[in-house]
Every structure is written in C-alpha cells, then in structure tokens.
C-alpha cells in the first residue's frame, strides 16, 4: 500500500481541471468527508482520523506521549530480537540445503520460485514450529494478548441453507465421518484436503496471524525475497515471488505457478499450504471487495478464514496511513484486538469448478454473511483514485493551517 501512495505522489494532478482549488478549510473538510463516504471500504473511522493525522484530543496526545517513552522502545527491542532469533533459526537449519525452484527454472520477469518450504525431515519441522510459536509471541508483543477463534457449526454456518445445500451436506458428512455410500457399504470417503486458505485482507498483521496458525506460503513482491532478515524467512515460508511492476500483459506465469502450488497442496499432505488474499488489497475491515479468481481456478476445496480487528481508539487496518506511522501508533496501544472466524472447508460443486467466477462469488458471499461484512464492488483502481484525491485535499488543508499560523 505504501508503494501505491508513492506512485500517487510521484504523479500529482497538475491542471486546475484535474485538481480544483477549494475556497476554505470547511470546503476541504466537506470534500474529505464526501470522499470517505464514496470510498467507504478504505476510509479510516478511528480516533486517529484520516491517514492517521488527527486531530488528536488532549487526552490521546498524553497517552501517546507516555507510550512512546515506555511501551514503544520495549516492544521495538523485543520485536527485533524475535525477528533476529527466527532469522538465525532459518539460517542454521537451511545450511547446506539448496532452495526448491519448481519443476522448471522460473527466471521469467513475472514469477520466481525459490524456497525452502519443500525441504522435508526434522529440519523443516523445526523451522515450521519455531515460526508458528515466534509469530504468536510477536503478536503478543504487539498487544494481541489473546486471539479468540470461533468455528461455526457446518450445519448452521449460513442462513441460506438452500443456496449452500450442496456444501452443507458435504461438510456435515465429512465432519461426522459418515459414509457417503449407500447403507451396507463400509467404505468411507476421506475428506478432501483444501488446496488454499483464503482470507479477507485488513493489515500486514494478517500475515503474522496466519504464520502462527498454519505457516502457509504467500504471494509476495520479488523485492521481499531480497530484504535483510525477512528475505530468508519468506523463502522458508515458501513464498511465490511476483514482479508486480512487470509491464507484460501476459500473466499466465503467475496464475500457472499459483495453480500448481494449489493443486500440489490439495494432493500432497506434506506440501506447503498456500494462502491467498482474493481481494487483492486491504480494506478497513468492515467490507469485502470483489474476489479475484486466482485462488479458485484450480477448482480445489478452499478454507475460508475471516479476520476482524475490533478497536476503541486505533484501528489496526492498514489503509491511507504510512507504514511507519501505523507501526508507531500500533505499538502505542497497550491492548490490541483480533478475532478470527474459521469457516469449514468449502467443497465446490461441479458448476463452481467449471466457473471460477461463480466459485469465488459464492465463497465471498458466505464469508460476508458469517463475518458480518459489507459487500463492495470497489477495487484497487478506486482505491488509488481515493488516495490520490485524498492527498490533494490534505495538501490544501495544510496550506490553510499554515496561513492561520
């Protein structure tokens, strides 16, 4: 998201027609309020205001001042210690091991596979267990002291019982271990393993939670694999690296690699599970955007997970706020909250397997229903427009404040 903001700032509107000047501070405030309504899935509604710039009440300023000299230094040191410790674990247990590069050498512009997630044996077990444990410890350091998880009953997961009938009966039989064969037959159908975990996307904290819960692989920018400390950790996760800035219109390399990993996880229990955010970007946590079909093209079962971040003062949602400011304010909160809803594995019908858009839409509706989320048809393009316009209006607001001073 930070890169998106940089893109917006590097190409600001220049003409008066593109960026009309507002006459007063009240006009700018009204324009920002109207923007927040129009682009509601991306608007921050917490005490810290749009882009985390306030204005802050006096009491909140005092709390932040105290936290910055007490909580923040301690949490920062602990977080860096945990990161360094896990890096050393990954470094030691991948010594003398060659990274997995897929069936073919994928040195194309768009996709790169280079991971240690396919490494078997006790060393892989140590890496995974340490990763899950330290990820949870890191969340604790950030103030997520307890994370309640709920698993709805498969039989009552959705009120639209008829619409989800096929799914319900399949899940009920599998969860109870009943046979799907006729009476008298003793064979039982083994539940299919999900090929991918799908989740709504609210913050970078989502990744930490999923690491602590199941330690899956992610799709990440290629630059992540080259970062100090984090690069090796991402390879141990088994991330699929994507060159998102690539200008080639052919993205079959990306979808093909992801589909291969999804099918591999579905068929092979020892293969790393892949985790995808089908919305393609973050929201403020109250909405669910249109799903991209990448996670559903393979037609394998999916495991839907819903993340919610209740808050009183500061929202953990990473939207319209810089990464540094978000981390700082997050560390200033004594307690942060995260709630998780783990839905039953979704088994697609034949119609859904043949139509990935239908499959994605049905899973999205189910997640919205169970997570009490609002469906929105906005996408990444709308988000960029919102950020660009918001930056322009806030620049004008700063000018008004400077004139007053």
Shape call = globular
Radius of gyration: 23 Å
User: Treating each run of at least 4 consecutive H or I residues as one helix, how many helices?
Assistant: 13
Strand percent estimate? 5-15%
Question: Averaging pLDDT over every residue, what do you get?
Answer: 80
How far is the N terminus from the C terminus?
33 Å
Would you list the SSEs in sequence order as H and E?
A: HHHHEHEHEHEHEHEEEHEHHEH
Counted beta strands: 10
Low-confidence stretches: 12-22, 104-108, 159-188, 246-251, 399-405
Strand adjacency order, main sheet: 2-9-8-3-6
Structural class: alpha/beta
The largest sheet, given as strand count, sense and whether it forms a barrel, is:
5 strands, mixed
Helical content (DSSP H or I, runs of 4+): 40-55%
What keyword list fits this structure?
405 residues, alpha/beta, 5-stranded mixed sheet, 10 strands, 8% strand, Plipid/glycerol_acylTrfase, acyltransferase, transmembrane helix, membrane, LPCAT1-like
Describe this structure in words.
- The chain is α/β, with parallel strands linked by helices and 405 residues long.
- Helix content is 44%, strand content 8%.
- The protein has helices at 2-10, 25-38, 58-69, 71-93, 121-141, 165-176, 205-213, 230-237, 252-267, 323-332, 350-354, 356-371, 380-404; strands at 111-113, 149-150, 196-199, 219-221, 240-242, 274-276, 287-288, 302-308, 339-342, 374-375.
- It has a 5-stranded mixed sheet with strand order 2-9-8-3-6, with helices on one face. It has a 3-stranded mixed sheet with strand order 1-5-4, with helices on one face. It has a two-stranded parallel sheet with strand order 7-10.
- Helix 8 links the parallel strand 4 (219-221) and strand 5 (240-242).
- The two termini are 33 Å apart.
- Mean pLDDT is 80; it is low at 12-22, 104-108, 159-188, 246-251 and 399-405.
């Amino acid at each position: 998201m930070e890169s998106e903001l940089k893109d917006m700032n590097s190409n600001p509107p220049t003409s008066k027609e593109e960026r009309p000047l507002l006459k007063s501070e009240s006009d700018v405030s009204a324009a920002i309020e109207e923007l927040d309504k129009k682009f509601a899935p991306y608007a921050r509604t917490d005490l810290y205001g749009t882009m985390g710039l306030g204005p802050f009440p006096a009491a909140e300023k005092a709390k932040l001042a105290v936290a910055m000299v007490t909580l923040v230094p301690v949490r920062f040191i602990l977080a860096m210690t945990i990161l360094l410790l896990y890096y050393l674990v990954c470094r030691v247990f991948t010594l003398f091991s060659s990274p997995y590069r897929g069936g073919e050498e994928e040195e194309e512009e768009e996709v790169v596979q280079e991971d240690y997630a396919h490494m078997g044996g006790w060393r892989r077990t140590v890496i995974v267990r340490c990763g899950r444990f330290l990820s949870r410890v890191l969340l604790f350091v950030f103030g997520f002291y307890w994370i309640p998880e709920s698993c709805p009953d498969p039989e009552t997961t959705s009120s639209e019982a008829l619409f989800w009938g096929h799914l319900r009966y399949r899940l009920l039989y599998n969860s109870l271990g009943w046979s799907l064969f006729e009476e008298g037959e003793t064979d039982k159908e083994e539940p299919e393993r999900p090929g991918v975990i799908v989740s709504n996307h609210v913050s970078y904290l989502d990744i930490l939670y999923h690491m602590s819960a199941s330690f899956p692989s992610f799709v990440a920018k290629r630059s992540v694999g080259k970062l100090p400390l984090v690069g090796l950790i991402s390879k141990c996760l088994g991330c699929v690296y994507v060159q998102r800035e690539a200008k080639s219109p052919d993205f079959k390399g990306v979808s093909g690699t992801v589909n291969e990993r999804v099918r591999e996880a579905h068929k092979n229990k020892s293969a790393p599970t892949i985790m995808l955010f089908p919305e393609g970007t973050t929201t403020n946590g109250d909405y669910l955007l249109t799903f991209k079909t990448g996670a559903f093209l393979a037609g394998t079962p999916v495991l839907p997970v819903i993340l919610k971040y209740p808050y009183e003062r500061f929202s953990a949602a990473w939207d319209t706020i810089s990464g540094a400011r978000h981390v700082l304010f997050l560390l200033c909160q004594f307690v942060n909250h995260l709630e998780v809803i783990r839905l039953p594995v979704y088994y697609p019908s034949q119609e859904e397997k043949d139509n990935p858009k239908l499959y994605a839409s049905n899973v999205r509706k189910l997640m919205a229903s169970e997570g009490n989320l609002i469906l929105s048809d906005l996408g990444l393009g709308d988000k960029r427009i919102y950020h660009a316009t918001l930056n322009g209006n806030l620049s004008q607001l700063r000018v008004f404040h400077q004139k007053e001073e």
